Predict the structure of Cytochrome P450.
Amino acid sequence: MLELSDKYPSIMRAWLGNQLFIIMTDPELIKLISYASMKLKNNTMNDFKVLSSPNTVEKSNLYRFMRPWLGDGLITAPTATWRVHRKLITPTFNMRILESFIEVFARQSEILVKEMEAELNGNEFDVFDYVSRCTLDIICETAMGVSSEVQTKKNSPYLDAIKKIADIAFMRMVKIWLHPDIIFYRTSLATEQKNCLKYLHSNTDNVIREKRTQLNNSLDSKNTESSVNSKLPRKTFLDLLIELSNEEIKLSNKELREEVDTIMAAGHKTSATLDTFVIFMLANFPEIQQKCYDELYRIFGDKVNEETQITRDDIRQMEYLERVIKETLRLFPVAPIIVRNVTNNLDVEKYIIPKGSSVVISIFQLHRRADLWTNPLEFNPDRFLPDEVAKQHPYSYIPFSAGPRNCIGLQYAMISMKVLLATVLRKYILHKDLKVKIQDIQLMTNTVLRPANPIKVKIMERKKIN
Protein backbone atom coordinates (compact mmCIF):
# COMPACT_ATOMS: atom_id res chain seq x y z
CA MET A 1 0.00 0.00 0.00
CA LEU A 2 2.85 2.38 0.81
CA GLU A 3 4.52 1.71 -2.53
CA LEU A 4 1.25 2.35 -4.39
CA SER A 5 0.56 5.53 -2.46
CA ASP A 6 4.04 6.86 -3.24
CA LYS A 7 3.52 6.16 -6.94
CA TYR A 8 0.01 7.60 -7.35
CA PRO A 9 -1.74 10.82 -6.20
CA SER A 10 -2.90 11.35 -2.64
CA ILE A 11 -6.41 10.18 -3.54
CA MET A 12 -6.51 6.94 -5.49
CA ARG A 13 -8.59 3.85 -6.08
CA ALA A 14 -7.59 0.32 -5.12
CA TRP A 15 -9.47 -2.97 -5.05
CA LEU A 16 -9.32 -5.87 -2.63
CA GLY A 17 -11.42 -8.57 -4.22
CA ASN A 18 -14.71 -6.86 -5.06
CA GLN A 19 -14.30 -4.09 -2.45
CA LEU A 20 -13.36 -0.59 -3.69
CA PHE A 21 -11.05 1.46 -1.46
CA ILE A 22 -10.35 5.18 -1.83
CA ILE A 23 -6.98 5.96 -0.25
CA MET A 24 -6.24 9.49 1.06
CA THR A 25 -3.10 11.09 2.50
CA ASP A 26 -3.91 14.77 1.88
CA PRO A 27 -5.12 16.61 5.02
CA GLU A 28 -7.29 18.94 2.96
CA LEU A 29 -9.04 16.02 1.29
CA ILE A 30 -9.51 14.46 4.70
CA LYS A 31 -10.92 17.69 6.08
CA LEU A 32 -13.06 19.25 3.37
CA ILE A 33 -16.17 17.48 2.22
CA SER A 34 -19.56 18.29 0.78
CA TYR A 35 -22.49 15.99 0.13
CA ALA A 36 -23.60 15.14 -3.40
CA SER A 37 -26.58 13.11 -2.27
CA MET A 38 -27.85 15.26 0.60
CA LYS A 39 -29.26 18.78 0.78
CA LEU A 40 -27.85 20.43 3.88
CA LYS A 41 -28.86 23.93 4.91
CA ASN A 42 -27.10 26.52 7.06
CA ASN A 43 -23.79 24.65 6.89
CA THR A 44 -20.48 25.47 5.24
CA MET A 45 -17.87 23.19 3.72
CA ASN A 46 -15.71 23.48 6.82
CA ASP A 47 -18.49 22.05 8.97
CA PHE A 48 -17.82 18.63 7.48
CA LYS A 49 -14.81 16.36 7.57
CA VAL A 50 -14.33 12.85 6.26
CA LEU A 51 -13.77 11.41 9.72
CA SER A 52 -16.71 13.21 11.30
CA SER A 53 -19.15 12.92 8.41
CA PRO A 54 -22.31 10.95 9.25
CA ASN A 55 -21.69 9.12 5.97
CA THR A 56 -18.33 7.75 7.09
CA VAL A 57 -18.95 6.80 10.72
CA GLU A 58 -19.60 3.14 9.87
CA LYS A 59 -16.51 0.95 10.11
CA SER A 60 -15.30 -0.94 7.06
CA ASN A 61 -16.63 -4.43 6.38
CA LEU A 62 -13.11 -5.69 7.04
CA TYR A 63 -13.71 -5.13 10.77
CA ARG A 64 -16.31 -7.89 10.70
CA PHE A 65 -13.48 -10.40 11.07
CA MET A 66 -12.88 -9.07 14.59
CA ARG A 67 -16.53 -9.38 15.60
CA PRO A 68 -16.37 -13.04 16.72
CA TRP A 69 -13.98 -11.76 19.39
CA LEU A 70 -15.14 -8.18 20.11
CA GLY A 71 -18.80 -8.42 19.09
CA ASP A 72 -20.44 -4.99 19.15
CA GLY A 73 -17.73 -3.31 21.20
CA LEU A 74 -16.78 0.28 20.34
CA ILE A 75 -14.25 -0.71 17.67
CA THR A 76 -16.50 -3.00 15.67
CA ALA A 77 -20.07 -1.95 16.53
CA PRO A 78 -22.49 -0.74 13.84
CA THR A 79 -23.21 2.98 14.11
CA ALA A 80 -26.57 2.69 15.91
CA THR A 81 -25.08 0.52 18.67
CA TRP A 82 -21.84 2.50 18.80
CA ARG A 83 -23.66 5.81 19.46
CA VAL A 84 -25.49 4.41 22.48
CA HIS A 85 -22.47 2.62 23.94
CA ARG A 86 -20.07 5.51 23.31
CA LYS A 87 -22.36 7.88 25.22
CA LEU A 88 -22.59 5.37 28.04
CA ILE A 89 -18.86 4.61 28.23
CA THR A 90 -17.46 8.15 27.86
CA PRO A 91 -18.01 9.10 31.56
CA THR A 92 -15.80 6.20 32.64
CA PHE A 93 -12.85 7.89 30.90
CA ASN A 94 -13.12 11.24 32.68
CA MET A 95 -9.88 12.64 34.12
CA ARG A 96 -10.78 12.05 37.76
CA ILE A 97 -11.29 8.34 37.14
CA LEU A 98 -8.15 8.06 35.00
CA GLU A 99 -6.06 9.72 37.71
CA SER A 100 -7.34 7.15 40.21
CA PHE A 101 -5.44 4.55 38.16
CA ILE A 102 -2.04 6.25 38.60
CA GLU A 103 -1.25 4.06 41.60
CA VAL A 104 -1.81 0.94 39.44
CA PHE A 105 0.33 2.34 36.62
CA ALA A 106 3.14 3.14 39.05
CA ARG A 107 3.03 -0.15 40.95
CA GLN A 108 3.07 -2.28 37.81
CA SER A 109 5.84 -0.13 36.31
CA GLU A 110 7.95 -0.70 39.41
CA ILE A 111 7.49 -4.44 38.90
CA LEU A 112 8.61 -3.95 35.29
CA VAL A 113 11.92 -2.33 36.23
CA LYS A 114 12.55 -5.06 38.81
CA GLU A 115 11.92 -7.77 36.19
CA MET A 116 14.26 -5.97 33.77
CA GLU A 117 17.09 -6.18 36.32
CA ALA A 118 17.92 -9.58 34.82
CA GLU A 119 19.18 -7.73 31.73
CA LEU A 120 21.19 -5.11 33.64
CA ASN A 121 24.61 -4.39 32.08
CA GLY A 122 24.14 -7.29 29.68
CA ASN A 123 23.64 -7.53 25.94
CA GLU A 124 20.83 -5.94 23.97
CA PHE A 125 17.51 -7.69 24.63
CA ASP A 126 13.99 -7.68 23.22
CA VAL A 127 12.18 -5.09 25.33
CA PHE A 128 8.68 -5.72 23.93
CA ASP A 129 8.13 -8.91 25.93
CA TYR A 130 8.73 -7.11 29.24
CA VAL A 131 6.59 -4.10 28.29
CA SER A 132 3.79 -6.25 26.87
CA ARG A 133 3.44 -8.19 30.12
CA CYS A 134 3.44 -4.99 32.15
CA THR A 135 0.73 -3.34 30.04
CA LEU A 136 -1.39 -6.50 30.26
CA ASP A 137 -1.14 -6.45 34.07
CA ILE A 138 -2.14 -2.77 34.00
CA ILE A 139 -5.14 -3.21 31.71
CA CYS A 140 -6.39 -6.31 33.56
CA GLU A 141 -6.38 -4.42 36.86
CA THR A 142 -7.88 -1.16 35.56
CA ALA A 143 -10.43 -2.69 33.18
CA MET A 144 -11.59 -5.72 35.14
CA GLY A 145 -10.12 -5.37 38.63
CA VAL A 146 -8.28 -8.68 38.45
CA SER A 147 -4.59 -9.29 39.02
CA SER A 148 -3.13 -11.32 36.17
CA GLU A 149 0.45 -11.21 37.56
CA VAL A 150 1.81 -11.95 34.09
CA GLN A 151 5.05 -10.11 34.83
CA THR A 152 6.00 -12.37 37.70
CA LYS A 153 4.36 -15.64 36.62
CA LYS A 154 5.76 -15.39 33.06
CA ASN A 155 3.33 -17.90 31.55
CA SER A 156 0.20 -16.20 30.17
CA PRO A 157 -2.44 -18.18 28.25
CA TYR A 158 -4.48 -14.94 28.05
CA LEU A 159 -1.64 -13.08 26.32
CA ASP A 160 -1.10 -15.98 23.92
CA ALA A 161 -4.81 -16.14 23.10
CA ILE A 162 -5.02 -12.40 22.39
CA LYS A 163 -2.06 -12.60 20.01
CA LYS A 164 -3.46 -15.61 18.15
CA ILE A 165 -6.97 -14.20 17.76
CA ALA A 166 -5.62 -10.85 16.49
CA ASP A 167 -3.35 -12.59 13.99
CA ILE A 168 -6.23 -14.70 12.66
CA ALA A 169 -8.50 -11.66 12.27
CA PHE A 170 -5.84 -9.74 10.36
CA MET A 171 -5.08 -12.75 8.18
CA ARG A 172 -8.72 -12.87 7.13
CA MET A 173 -8.67 -9.15 6.34
CA VAL A 174 -5.82 -9.36 3.85
CA LYS A 175 -6.39 -12.82 2.33
CA ILE A 176 -9.53 -12.53 0.27
CA TRP A 177 -9.95 -16.31 -0.10
CA LEU A 178 -10.56 -16.42 3.66
CA HIS A 179 -13.34 -13.80 3.49
CA PRO A 180 -16.22 -16.23 2.85
CA ASP A 181 -17.30 -17.97 6.06
CA ILE A 182 -18.03 -21.14 4.11
CA ILE A 183 -14.30 -21.42 3.36
CA PHE A 184 -12.81 -20.03 6.57
CA TYR A 185 -14.82 -22.30 8.88
CA ARG A 186 -13.41 -25.34 7.11
CA THR A 187 -9.81 -24.39 7.90
CA SER A 188 -7.59 -25.12 10.90
CA LEU A 189 -7.56 -21.38 11.60
CA ALA A 190 -11.26 -21.55 12.45
CA THR A 191 -10.59 -24.29 14.99
CA GLU A 192 -7.79 -22.26 16.55
CA GLN A 193 -10.04 -19.19 16.65
CA LYS A 194 -12.82 -21.18 18.34
CA ASN A 195 -10.45 -22.37 21.07
CA CYS A 196 -9.12 -18.85 21.68
CA LEU A 197 -12.63 -17.39 21.82
CA LYS A 198 -13.79 -20.02 24.29
CA TYR A 199 -10.93 -19.17 26.63
CA LEU A 200 -11.09 -15.36 26.28
CA HIS A 201 -14.87 -15.09 26.55
CA SER A 202 -15.17 -17.45 29.50
CA ASN A 203 -12.42 -15.56 31.32
CA THR A 204 -14.25 -12.23 30.94
CA ASP A 205 -17.68 -13.75 31.63
CA ASN A 206 -16.45 -15.16 34.94
CA VAL A 207 -15.14 -11.77 36.04
CA ILE A 208 -18.43 -10.06 35.07
CA ARG A 209 -20.52 -12.53 37.06
CA GLU A 210 -18.34 -11.99 40.13
CA LYS A 211 -18.50 -8.20 39.73
CA ARG A 212 -22.28 -8.19 39.37
CA THR A 213 -22.58 -10.25 42.55
CA GLN A 214 -20.25 -7.93 44.46
CA LEU A 215 -21.99 -4.77 43.27
CA ASN A 216 -25.47 -6.15 43.92
CA ASN A 217 -24.43 -6.89 47.47
CA SER A 218 -23.19 -3.35 48.01
CA LEU A 219 -25.92 -1.31 46.30
CA ASP A 220 -26.97 1.87 48.07
CA SER A 221 -29.28 4.77 47.35
CA LYS A 222 -26.69 6.91 45.59
CA ASN A 223 -27.43 7.89 42.02
CA THR A 224 -25.09 7.12 39.12
CA GLU A 225 -23.37 10.50 39.11
CA SER A 226 -22.50 10.49 42.79
CA SER A 227 -21.44 6.87 42.57
CA VAL A 228 -18.92 7.63 39.85
CA ASN A 229 -17.57 10.78 41.46
CA SER A 230 -17.60 9.74 45.08
CA LYS A 231 -14.43 9.17 47.11
CA LEU A 232 -15.02 5.45 47.40
CA PRO A 233 -12.12 3.06 46.73
CA ARG A 234 -10.91 2.99 43.14
CA LYS A 235 -13.30 1.39 40.69
CA THR A 236 -12.48 -0.35 37.43
CA PHE A 237 -14.02 0.32 34.03
CA LEU A 238 -16.18 -2.78 34.49
CA ASP A 239 -17.47 -1.56 37.88
CA LEU A 240 -18.37 1.81 36.37
CA LEU A 241 -20.01 0.32 33.29
CA ILE A 242 -22.25 -1.89 35.41
CA GLU A 243 -23.25 1.04 37.62
CA LEU A 244 -23.81 3.48 34.76
CA SER A 245 -25.77 0.96 32.71
CA ASN A 246 -28.21 0.49 35.58
CA GLU A 247 -29.32 4.12 35.29
CA GLU A 248 -30.64 4.33 31.72
CA ILE A 249 -29.64 1.38 29.60
CA LYS A 250 -28.89 -1.89 31.29
CA LEU A 251 -26.12 -3.66 29.42
CA SER A 252 -26.38 -7.43 29.26
CA ASN A 253 -23.47 -9.57 30.39
CA LYS A 254 -22.69 -10.21 26.73
CA GLU A 255 -22.57 -6.47 25.95
CA LEU A 256 -20.39 -5.86 28.99
CA ARG A 257 -18.04 -8.61 27.88
CA GLU A 258 -17.76 -7.13 24.40
CA GLU A 259 -16.87 -3.68 25.72
CA VAL A 260 -14.40 -5.03 28.29
CA ASP A 261 -12.77 -7.28 25.68
CA THR A 262 -12.50 -4.26 23.37
CA ILE A 263 -10.82 -2.18 26.08
CA MET A 264 -8.49 -5.08 26.82
CA ALA A 265 -7.59 -5.62 23.16
CA ALA A 266 -7.11 -1.96 22.26
CA GLY A 267 -5.53 -0.84 25.51
CA HIS A 268 -2.98 -3.60 25.82
CA LYS A 269 -1.61 -3.97 22.31
CA THR A 270 -1.42 -0.29 21.38
CA SER A 271 0.17 0.81 24.67
CA ALA A 272 2.72 -2.01 24.64
CA THR A 273 3.74 -1.29 21.06
CA LEU A 274 3.99 2.47 21.53
CA ASP A 275 5.90 2.17 24.83
CA THR A 276 8.37 -0.09 23.05
CA PHE A 277 8.84 2.34 20.17
CA VAL A 278 9.43 5.21 22.63
CA ILE A 279 12.02 3.18 24.56
CA PHE A 280 13.74 2.45 21.24
CA MET A 281 13.77 6.16 20.29
CA LEU A 282 15.18 7.14 23.69
CA ALA A 283 17.93 4.54 23.39
CA ASN A 284 18.62 5.57 19.79
CA PHE A 285 18.82 9.28 20.60
CA PRO A 286 20.73 9.63 23.91
CA GLU A 287 20.62 13.44 23.81
CA ILE A 288 16.81 13.32 23.83
CA GLN A 289 16.84 10.69 26.58
CA GLN A 290 19.02 13.04 28.65
CA LYS A 291 16.53 15.89 28.20
CA CYS A 292 13.77 13.60 29.47
CA TYR A 293 15.85 12.67 32.49
CA ASP A 294 16.72 16.33 33.16
CA GLU A 295 12.98 17.07 33.18
CA LEU A 296 12.41 14.25 35.67
CA TYR A 297 15.19 15.63 37.86
CA ARG A 298 13.48 19.04 37.86
CA ILE A 299 10.27 17.31 38.98
CA PHE A 300 11.64 14.90 41.60
CA GLY A 301 14.89 16.60 42.61
CA ASP A 302 17.30 14.47 44.65
CA LYS A 303 14.63 11.76 44.91
CA VAL A 304 14.62 11.18 41.16
CA ASN A 305 16.28 7.77 41.53
CA GLU A 306 14.18 6.68 44.48
CA GLU A 307 10.92 4.73 44.35
CA THR A 308 8.80 7.75 45.24
CA GLN A 309 5.15 7.62 44.17
CA ILE A 310 4.41 9.48 40.93
CA THR A 311 1.49 11.87 41.36
CA ARG A 312 -0.89 13.54 38.94
CA ASP A 313 0.99 16.84 39.42
CA ASP A 314 4.23 15.10 38.45
CA ILE A 315 2.59 13.75 35.30
CA ARG A 316 1.34 17.17 34.28
CA GLN A 317 4.90 18.51 34.46
CA MET A 318 6.27 15.85 32.08
CA GLU A 319 5.90 18.15 29.08
CA TYR A 320 9.05 17.15 27.20
CA LEU A 321 8.33 13.44 27.71
CA GLU A 322 4.86 14.05 26.29
CA ARG A 323 6.42 15.66 23.20
CA VAL A 324 8.68 12.61 22.82
CA ILE A 325 5.63 10.34 22.92
CA LYS A 326 3.82 12.50 20.36
CA GLU A 327 6.79 12.54 18.00
CA THR A 328 7.07 8.76 18.30
CA LEU A 329 3.37 8.52 17.43
CA ARG A 330 3.97 10.73 14.40
CA LEU A 331 6.63 8.42 13.00
CA PHE A 332 5.09 5.18 14.25
CA PRO A 333 1.30 5.58 14.53
CA VAL A 334 0.10 2.35 16.13
CA ALA A 335 -3.01 2.48 13.94
CA PRO A 336 -1.34 3.20 10.58
CA ILE A 337 -4.59 3.33 8.62
CA ILE A 338 -8.28 4.04 9.29
CA VAL A 339 -10.93 2.42 7.09
CA ARG A 340 -14.54 3.63 7.00
CA ASN A 341 -17.54 2.60 4.90
CA VAL A 342 -19.19 5.26 2.72
CA THR A 343 -22.96 5.02 3.21
CA ASN A 344 -23.89 7.79 0.72
CA ASN A 345 -22.16 9.34 -2.28
CA LEU A 346 -19.72 12.04 -1.14
CA ASP A 347 -18.27 14.98 -3.06
CA VAL A 348 -14.67 15.66 -2.09
CA GLU A 349 -13.45 18.57 -4.18
CA LYS A 350 -13.58 17.30 -7.79
CA TYR A 351 -14.09 13.67 -6.83
CA ILE A 352 -17.19 11.63 -6.03
CA ILE A 353 -16.62 8.84 -3.52
CA PRO A 354 -19.33 6.30 -4.31
CA LYS A 355 -21.69 4.75 -1.84
CA GLY A 356 -20.58 1.25 -0.86
CA SER A 357 -16.86 1.98 -1.17
CA SER A 358 -14.48 2.42 1.76
CA VAL A 359 -12.34 5.44 2.59
CA VAL A 360 -8.80 4.62 3.73
CA ILE A 361 -6.93 7.33 5.64
CA SER A 362 -3.22 6.47 5.51
CA ILE A 363 -2.10 8.01 8.80
CA PHE A 364 1.38 6.57 8.42
CA GLN A 365 2.04 8.47 5.20
CA LEU A 366 0.17 11.56 6.33
CA HIS A 367 2.56 11.83 9.29
CA ARG A 368 5.62 11.53 7.06
CA ARG A 369 4.72 13.87 4.20
CA ALA A 370 7.61 16.19 3.32
CA ASP A 371 5.23 19.01 2.38
CA LEU A 372 3.68 18.92 5.86
CA TRP A 373 6.68 18.17 8.06
CA THR A 374 10.18 19.65 7.77
CA ASN A 375 12.69 16.80 7.56
CA PRO A 376 9.91 14.28 8.24
CA LEU A 377 12.28 11.39 9.07
CA GLU A 378 14.12 13.41 11.71
CA PHE A 379 13.13 12.61 15.31
CA ASN A 380 12.36 16.04 16.73
CA PRO A 381 10.02 16.26 19.75
CA ASP A 382 10.07 20.06 19.57
CA ARG A 383 7.69 19.85 16.62
CA PHE A 384 5.06 19.67 19.34
CA LEU A 385 5.93 22.87 21.13
CA PRO A 386 2.77 25.02 21.28
CA ASP A 387 4.09 27.57 18.75
CA GLU A 388 5.00 24.81 16.30
CA VAL A 389 1.68 23.00 16.72
CA ALA A 390 -0.12 26.24 15.84
CA LYS A 391 1.60 26.18 12.44
CA GLN A 392 0.52 22.62 11.62
CA HIS A 393 -2.45 21.71 9.49
CA PRO A 394 -5.10 20.48 11.99
CA TYR A 395 -5.45 17.23 10.05
CA SER A 396 -1.75 16.57 9.50
CA TYR A 397 -1.48 14.72 12.82
CA ILE A 398 -4.23 12.27 13.79
CA PRO A 399 -2.59 9.31 15.59
CA PHE A 400 -5.80 8.52 17.49
CA SER A 401 -8.08 9.21 14.52
CA ALA A 402 -10.44 12.21 14.56
CA GLY A 403 -14.12 13.00 14.57
CA PRO A 404 -16.77 11.31 16.70
CA ARG A 405 -15.29 7.83 16.30
CA ASN A 406 -11.84 8.75 17.54
CA CYS A 407 -10.03 6.73 20.20
CA ILE A 408 -11.78 7.05 23.57
CA GLY A 409 -8.64 6.01 25.46
CA LEU A 410 -6.28 8.84 24.43
CA GLN A 411 -5.82 10.31 27.91
CA TYR A 412 -5.66 6.87 29.54
CA ALA A 413 -2.85 5.90 27.17
CA MET A 414 -0.91 9.13 27.69
CA ILE A 415 -1.03 8.95 31.49
CA SER A 416 -0.09 5.25 31.65
CA MET A 417 2.78 5.73 29.17
CA LYS A 418 4.20 8.70 31.06
CA VAL A 419 4.22 6.73 34.31
CA LEU A 420 5.82 3.64 32.75
CA LEU A 421 8.47 5.54 30.78
CA ALA A 422 9.33 7.86 33.68
CA THR A 423 9.74 4.85 35.98
CA VAL A 424 12.11 3.16 33.53
CA LEU A 425 14.16 6.34 32.94
CA ARG A 426 14.51 7.02 36.67
CA LYS A 427 16.05 3.57 37.08
CA TYR A 428 17.96 2.84 33.87
CA ILE A 429 20.01 4.38 31.08
CA LEU A 430 18.78 3.04 27.74
CA HIS A 431 21.41 2.31 25.12
CA LYS A 432 21.82 1.12 21.53
CA ASP A 433 25.14 -0.34 20.36
CA LEU A 434 24.56 1.06 16.86
CA LYS A 435 22.34 4.02 16.07
CA VAL A 436 19.56 3.20 13.62
CA LYS A 437 18.23 5.62 11.00
CA ILE A 438 14.46 6.08 11.02
CA GLN A 439 14.21 5.13 7.35
CA ASP A 440 16.04 1.85 8.04
CA ILE A 441 13.53 0.62 10.62
CA GLN A 442 11.52 -2.09 8.90
CA LEU A 443 7.86 -2.18 9.81
CA MET A 444 4.86 -4.43 9.39
CA THR A 445 1.30 -4.56 10.65
CA ASN A 446 -1.15 -7.07 12.06
CA THR A 447 -3.92 -4.67 13.18
CA VAL A 448 -1.29 -2.37 14.74
CA LEU A 449 2.01 -1.07 13.37
CA ARG A 450 4.97 -2.94 14.74
CA PRO A 451 8.66 -3.51 13.95
CA ALA A 452 9.43 -6.32 11.54
CA ASN A 453 12.38 -7.28 13.76
CA PRO A 454 12.52 -7.29 17.58
CA ILE A 455 13.38 -3.96 19.18
CA LYS A 456 16.48 -4.54 21.25
CA VAL A 457 18.09 -2.18 23.73
CA LYS A 458 20.68 -2.38 26.47
CA ILE A 459 20.08 -1.08 30.01
CA MET A 460 22.56 0.30 32.55
CA GLU A 461 21.76 1.43 36.06
CA ARG A 462 21.64 5.16 36.73
CA LYS A 463 23.94 6.34 39.46
CA LYS A 464 22.03 7.65 42.43
CA ILE A 465 22.39 11.36 43.05
CA ASN A 466 23.88 12.16 46.46
